[in-house]
Amino acid sequence: MSEEHERVDLRMPEGDEVFAEVTEMLGANRIRVRCADGTERTARIPGRMQKRVWIREGDIVLVDPWDWQDEKADVEWRYEKSAADQLREEGHL
């Protein structure tokens, strides 16, 4: 019994966006993330995602760091578990 893994085209970082892992839920639509560039940031969950996308600790997200404050960022995308596993297999994380 072998499982076939089908490669899916995933949303990749554009511009300044980086991969990040959610490390802590801060409340008030804010989360603490550890970015792939080694920086810990406070990320803001935008209104368009608040009721539609549930973000939990350990999730892989795509964040866009602020230009004027490097320790803050906006969440742009949350990856499903299968998509996060695919990113790990391909060496992006």
From TrEMBL:
Start and end residues of each S1-like domain: 6-80
Species this protein is from: Halarchaeum acidiphilum MH1-52-1
Assigned protein family: Belongs to the eIF-1A family.
SUPFAM superfamilies found in the cross-reference section: Nucleic acid-binding proteins
Role: Seems to be required for maximal rate of protein biosynthesis. Enhances ribosome dissociation into subunits and stabilizes the binding of the initiator Met-tRNA(I) to 40 S ribosomal subunits.
PROSITE patterns named in the record: IF1A, S1_IF1_TYPE
UniProt protein name: Translation initiation factor 1A
Alphabetical keyword list: Initiation factor, Protein biosynthesis
Single GO MF annotation: translation initiation factor activity
Superkingdom, taxonomy of origin: Archaea
